[in-house]
Amino acid sequence: MTSRDDPVGLDSAILELEKGLDLEFEASGASSIVENIIAQLQSANPEDRICGCHSIASLASKQEVRVELLRVKVPRICGPLLLDSDKLVVQAAAGCLHNLSCEGVEVVDHLVEQDIITPLASLMLQFRILGSAVVDEKRMRTIVDSLGLMWNMMEQSQIATNIFNRENMIDIVLQFLDHHRFSASLVQASLSLLATACDNNMAAQQKMIPHTLTLSNMIKSDETSHNIKMTSGVVLLNILHSKLYSDQVFPGLISAVSSCLQTDTRKMVSELSSSVPLEQDAGEMEVEEDKNNITKDDKVGDECKKMIKAQFAALEILANLTSNEEGDEETDDDEEDIDDDSNSNHNSSSANPVLVEAIISYQLVQTILLRSNDLPTNVKHLLSTSKQGRYLLSLSKQLIIHSFLCLSNLTSYLNLADLGGSDKLYQTWTGLGSISCQPDQDTELIEAATSAMRSTTAKLCAHSQANSLFNLGPADLDHLLAVFSSPEASIRTNIVSILGDLAGLAAHNLSDSTSCQVLSNLAMWLVDTAAQDENLRVAAEAFDKLFDVFGEDDTDFIFANLDLLHKLRNILPQFKSRIGQNKTRLGEDLPIVTMASDNLQSFVQYKGNRPSAAKK
Length: 616
What we know:
Elements: H1 12-28, H2 30-41, H3 46-59, H4 63-71, H5 74-78, H6 87-101, H7 105-113, H8 117-126, H9 137-156, H10 158-166, H11 170-174, H12 184-197, H13 202-208, H14 212-220, H15 226-240, H16 250-262, H17 265-275, H18 296-321, H19 325-328, H20 332-336, H21 353-361, H22 364-371, H23 377-383, H24 387-413, H25 422-436, H26 443-461, H27 466-470, H28 478-483, H29 489-507, H30 513-532, H31 536-549, H32 556-561, H33 564-582, H34 590-608
């Protein structure tokens, strides 16, 4: 959940405070501001406490102030204000703590440590007795921020989830799903919290099963927004899992997902950038007096943001539907059986036919590719001149990232024919390669692009005409090798997988001298990567690809010419030693790395028993 521009919603006096904060920050620095905030929060005057909360909310995005706020434990001081006798103070405290919690995992960890959960839980328990009472706007905003804060806490803290379960808070949240009675923002906040509450939480899932019809009705309703429909879908998916395919809501959900993704948000953002003078940042914070003066363009901007966020959820639904453990595993038969478009698929046996039919009939792959298109350069320039514009830029980039990650799952899930055939998928591959190889590109974007490229490479390399599609020489690989310099291990792992698959493709065409040269170059690169990469997960991936490439005996002559047996024998004890030294730090990578070590030992032994694999 993102922070609001107006977390407190006070009068123009607060706006004057906001205008002075930046000047005070420049003049006195973070320490002086935080001292003033603490004094305000501890004041007997409720107006002072409100101003202190507003200062936190306004400065939460400034790293220097945020670090100081957390260092001196200001949240611990602010937390009890969630139970203040003054309702405006409660509203202000909920707003500022929610804004603070939106600043990342590390901040949430501090909020947990400083025991924000206890007063937050007590505040939320007060909402249980609302019944049929009319909820005014100020109270509703307090509830929205409280739900948003709890959502962010539960995303990171098992303690928060345990309290949520123990206090049966799910019943509190369920009452706010009535979109006829409550605002869209409150319904949306409630659904977002439920989506997190039901994620790998059996207790919450069981509680929600009787309410699936309510969620289904919101998806089908003509009165609910795309955002509410998609978040309802995420909640249903977290409750029903694979049972969703046979549920009566499934056709309506996929139709709603398609409708959401078909909206051209790129066009919406581009039109907004050209029609709105976004250059002015001053006075962007909304105050109550100005609500009637919200411009048409402000409303269009808000709708644009909501629509992009709805598309995030739609892509999440598709990605989760197509990411099952069975489908992610590749069998030996898959690698050995290079067939035509209709059978070129690593996991056709595990793909649900109902889902496959829906993806094809709604042309979801093509739609996702459209959503992955970047904004024009001139639009980016216009948007970069203001706070709202920069936020839209960030959302647009995240939409591309979500699209690539979803495309990665879809590519692994579907067969080549369902993806449009080898030529279309190769066009996608080249486009992803262009993005991945751009200099000074965003790291998160490259990670998503190389993830999608990894899936498309694997799919294409299993095709009978793959050599004619790629037709790569040694010089063509230099761009991808340049991407490998990334400091991100996940990106390097993706590149190792891509180049390893291309090496495997070359190994199937040993009658061609260029393929032999490509195989030789990539084999040496994989060995060097396995031996030298500082990240053992990357090294394990390199070893796995080597085993795949040289698993067939007809590659023995290249294996021998490169003296790989001698090199791998030298690497084996070093690799084992590195695993022993880093065992406690490997976490979930430990089984993968350990298996690679065991396989390396078996591989060296196997090749050592073959005279043709040893250098003469």
